What does this fold into?
Amino acid sequence: MLVCVYGNRNYDDALLELKDISEANGFVPIAAGAFIARHSIFSDVAVGRPDKEDKQEIQKFAQECFRLYQSYDKNKQYSLPDVKGNYPYREPTQGGYVPTGDDRCDDCGTCVSQCPTSAIPTSNPKVTNMDLCIRCARCITLCPEHSRAFRGELYETVKAKFAPLMAARKEPEVYMCKI
It folds into this structure.
């Protein structure tokens, strides 16, 4: 079962890439789902998601996945319906902004140790290496002092344009094999 979560903008090629990677490693994807959560960079987008309706859709997806799993016959060929995505995959764009710390930072090192790309230097955890940062916002979520955030004029300008464009509610998308 392939699952991705996105912030009400677009999941781009995520499910397609997951499908390709899993198949290349000998797995047989029989279900895929893209679900919505609060946007990790622009936190005013999709506030409160997943909500009650989303959780019901996730539950239905999980139940259907379990049913498919129970019915799976390793001697049959299965093909997941075409999932949304692009060939070649879209190149990710860099926003030109990264999370940084402010004067609340007490140099505890939580962000440094938990950054998946080592983009935050131990010597100065208030800064972030823009070339290494993938903008996952993990450091923001984990910061015990609430010091780290996206900031700056460019960020605020993009946020002012982005939030209204992404205000319309999007619904989860699921793909299931026929078994």
